[in-house]
């Protein structure tokens, strides 16, 4: 039987067998070559408090506390959230016209030996580096973080939290013409990658007051846009302190618990900051510039930029493990994050 990486307990990854499903009309089967998954979202879903004691009601757009989530909302064992993968088409269903067996494709794939996807949800790999293709999912969130926070040519930008989303936001801010890009993260491995992606300076918030340093390097004013991508209230506070009067703080992170450590009565209030949660986070299903931009156009734009060699991601995918080695990586994510940027599994 084929195998997959799955949560076999809330904080434990394992390898489980699964049955191959029959193809429905319009679907293709893919033999996975390499696949990756989100870190922060999975941590929030498995160990965070936001979803543990309440569930989001999409009809009312409210979290309902002290009510059980609908039956089947979190089955176990389950895959990892937000996976992206590369593979080869092995079978196509009736009506499929875009793909044939042998085609090299990528898209939103689970960390499993085979995947079944609708033909419209895949892209031709072609000349795209597979490790860049694996960044499609975090790139989608970074793309909207940069666009919806209003980064403009000549702006100064800080990105606080350098997971895959933050690192790609650094790259996109630089590509957007930012005059200065500051990257903030306590992990040296991620700061080094950020410098390779175009950051002017990478700051360790445990070794300095990042907000103060950024103000010093911007003539006391702070940045026009700060993108918080760590999902940490300490990181959000650093983003707020980094931003100039009337600037924008983009809250990309998935926060857990009450914001007891954020002082909204200090810089956020006195500097009249704007706050935005970008498309790609939570359950909002339309970007702010819809209908000019929608999910399909955003994906096509990113794939085109990857194909042209403009959107690159050197150093983002590390480490790369075998499936048998992969369960150990979750202990690294939780306890030794300096060993991981965005892990991938090669089949």
Q: How are the SSEs placed, and which strands pair?
A:
Blueprint: E1 3-9, E2 12-17, E3 27-36, H1 40-47, E4 54-57, E5 62-65, E6 84-92, E7 104-107, E8 114-118, E9 122-124, H2 130-133, H3 136-148, E10 156-160, H4 164-175, E11 180-184, H5 188-196, E12 201-203, H6 210-216, E13 223-228, H7 233-242, E14 243-251, H8 267-270, E15 274-276, H9 295-307, E16 317-322, H10 329-335, E17 342-346
Parallel strand pairs: 10-11, 10-13, 11-12, 13-14, 14-15, 16-17
Antiparallel strand pairs: 1-2, 3-6, 3-8, 3-17, 4-5, 6-7, 7-9
Protein model, in words:
The relative contact order is 0.15. The protein has helices at 40-47, 130-133, 136-148, 164-175, 188-196, 210-216, 233-242, 267-270, 295-307, 329-335, and strands spanning 3-9, 12-17, 27-36, 54-57, 62-65, 84-92, 104-107, 114-118, 122-124, 156-160, 180-184, 201-203, 223-228, 243-251, 274-276, 317-322, 342-346. 25% of the residues lie in helices and 27% in strands. Strands 3, 6, 7, 8, 9, 16 and 17 form a 7-stranded mixed sheet that branches. It has a 6-stranded parallel sheet with strand order 12-11-10-13-14-15, sandwiched between helices. Helix 3 packs across helix 4 (164-175), helix 3 (136-148) crosses helix 9 (295-307) and helix 6 (210-216) runs parallel beside helix 7. Strand 13, helix 7 (233-242) and strand 14 form a beta-alpha-beta unit. The chain is an alpha/beta fold.
């Amino acid at each position: 039987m084929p195998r997959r990486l799955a949560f076999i307990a809330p904080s434990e990854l394992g390898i489980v067998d699964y049955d191959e499903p029959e193809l429905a009309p319009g679907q293709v089967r893919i033999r996975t070559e390499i696949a990756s998954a989100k870190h922060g979202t999975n941590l929030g879903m498995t160990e965070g408090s936001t979803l543990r004691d309440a569930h989001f009601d999409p009809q009312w757009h409210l979290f309902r506390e002290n009510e059980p989530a609908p039956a089947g909302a979190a089955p176990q064992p389950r895959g990892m959230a937000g996976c992206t993968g590369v593979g080869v088409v092995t079978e196509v269903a009736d009506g499929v016209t875009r793909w044939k067996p042998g085609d090299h494709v990528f898209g939103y794939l689970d960390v499993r030996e085979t995947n079944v996807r609708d033909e419209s949800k895949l892209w031709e790999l072609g000349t795209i580096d597979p490790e860049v293709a694996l960044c499609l999912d975090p790139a989608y969130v970074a793309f909207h973080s940069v666009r919806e926070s209003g980064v403009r040519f000549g702006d100064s930008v800080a990105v606080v939290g350098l997971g895959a989303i933050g690192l790609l936001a650094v790259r996109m801010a630089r590509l957007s013409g930012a005059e200065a890009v500051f990257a903030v993260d306590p992990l040296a491995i991620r700061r080094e990658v950020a410098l390779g992606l175009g950051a002017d300076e990478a700051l360790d918030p445990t070794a300095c007051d990042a907000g103060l340093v950024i103000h010093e390097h911007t003539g006391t004013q702070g940045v026009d846009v700060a993108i918080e991508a760590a999902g940490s209230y300490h990181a959000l506070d650093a983003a707020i302190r980094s931003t100039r009067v009337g600037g924008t703080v983009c809250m990309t992170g998935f926060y857990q618990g009450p914001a007891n450590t954020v002082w909204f009565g200090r810089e956020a209030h006195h500097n009249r900051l704007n706050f935005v949660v970008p498309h790609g986070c939570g359950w909002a299903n339309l970007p702010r510039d819809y209908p000019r931009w929608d999910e399909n156009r955003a994906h096509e734009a990113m794939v085109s930029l990857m194909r042209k060699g403009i959107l690159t991601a050197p150093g983002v995918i590390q480490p790369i493990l075998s499936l048998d080695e992969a369960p150990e990586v979750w202990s690294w994510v939780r306890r030794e994050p300096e060993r991981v940027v965005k892990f991938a599994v090669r089949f």
